[in-house]
Amino acid sequence: MATATARKPTATKVRENPLQDFTWTGVDKRGQLMKGEIQSKSVNLVKAELRKQGITPRVVKPKAKPLFGKAGSTIKAQDIAVFSRQLATMMQSGVPMVQALDILASGQKNVRMSTLIGSIRDEVSGGSSLSEALGKHPVQFDELYQNLVRAGEGAGVLDTVLDTIATYKERIEGLKGKIKKALFYPAAVIAVAILVSCVLLIFVIPQFQSVFQGFGADLPAFTQMLVNLSEWMQSYWWLLLVVTLGTGFGLVALKKRSLAFAHFLDRMVLKIPVIGQIMHQSAIARFSRTLGITFRAGVPLVEALDTVAGATGNVVYEKAVKRIRDDVAVGYPVNLSMKQVGLFPHMVVQMTAIGEEAGALDTMLFKVAEFYEQEVNNAVDALTSLLEPLIMVFIGVVVGGMVVGMYLPIFKLAAAVG
């Protein structure tokens, strides 16, 4: 008796071709020439799709890649804000989410942003919620963003929450931009002054030095100091460069790895005159707006405070907010906890207390945020006006001092001859 042995069929994995961008040209039913771009898996599928739309394809080819790497190599916070605003607008207009994501993905000039939205679209079309899909990309969509979207999905007001997120990100990025502008301008001017000084010391002063040697007289003390500094720079300029770059990279790496050092550095920044005050006001504005938006979206207060801690932009305030979170978790009012940490002004504590008593904490927090954002704007403008003359004086003293030092022996010689 023969026995038939059934061979178990083996499943073979079929690797799907990834979507890629194609450019096409074709003729419509009226004979007019048309062109465009489309994402598909192959040239044949593109042609089939065009014929369905009544277009006779002429040329279909893969989109040429940029000459220097990928176009749009980074995804900025502003890109995420625009994406949030566009998605909210489409959902408010009744466009299904998957279709809205598909439209946004195909309309992006930034290749990486287009790929990111396409990945979110695939996750959502596969049955995931939007918050779950965003969770696969924590770099672009942080915990705050995910929590707000999750709260919006639970309350059925996702379009409103997305619009609120867009406004929040625009305001926060505007605040960051103001602070960067205030710090970048003086830093850039000082860096140029130092560079000019190095050029004078390495290339210009040695030319004067050969002239001084023919005088046969002692040089003025200031001129001799510049000559000695020039000789040192000519021999050890590389050492100065290595020490400067090494110190900069070392401080950045140490701040990332050591929480204690980051806390010390941020505490020192808060004590710098004028700039420290701006950083204080910025941290309070970001705390208030972030807590207000999370609380209004329906995120529980303790969870909201946990999310807000990392959004203040300063380790000192982050530690303080975590302490507030722990106090609130055991039943303390927010305003009492804020008073205990000693970082928040009396007005902020009082407005928070009024908001808690009136059941309008989010409204009060938004008012605090608007006030301190305006304070930051005014302080930055005042700082810029104050620094401009000081920077001119600094450049005049450093560069002008070197020039005067080089001409002192000539003035001395002229006086002796006269």
Automatic annotation (TrEMBL):
<feature type="transmembrane region" description="Helical">
    <location>
        <begin position="183"/>
        <end position="205"/>
    </location>
</feature>
<dbReference type="InterPro" id="IPR042094">
    <property type="entry name" value="T2SS_GspF_sf"/>
</dbReference>
<keyword id="KW-0997">Cell inner membrane</keyword>
<protein>
    <submittedName>
        <fullName>Type II secretion system F family protein</fullName>
    </submittedName>
</protein>
<dbReference type="InterPro" id="IPR003004">
    <property type="entry name" value="GspF/PilC"/>
</dbReference>
<dbReference type="Pfam" id="PF00482">
    <property type="entry name" value="T2SSF"/>
</dbReference>
<keyword id="KW-0812">Transmembrane</keyword>
<dbReference type="InterPro" id="IPR001992">
    <property type="entry name" value="T2SS_GspF/T4SS_PilC_CS"/>
</dbReference>
<feature type="transmembrane region" description="Helical">
    <location>
        <begin position="235"/>
        <end position="254"/>
    </location>
</feature>
<keyword id="KW-0813">Transport</keyword>
<comment type="similarity">
    <text>Belongs to the GSP F family.</text>
</comment>
<feature type="domain" description="Type II secretion system protein GspF">
    <location>
        <begin position="83"/>
        <end position="206"/>
    </location>
</feature>
<keyword id="KW-1003">Cell membrane</keyword>
<keyword id="KW-0472">Membrane</keyword>
<feature type="domain" description="Type II secretion system protein GspF">
    <location>
        <begin position="287"/>
        <end position="409"/>
    </location>
</feature>
<keyword id="KW-1133">Transmembrane helix</keyword>
<dbReference type="InterPro" id="IPR018076">
    <property type="entry name" value="T2SS_GspF_dom"/>
</dbReference>
<feature type="transmembrane region" description="Helical">
    <location>
        <begin position="390"/>
        <end position="410"/>
    </location>
</feature>
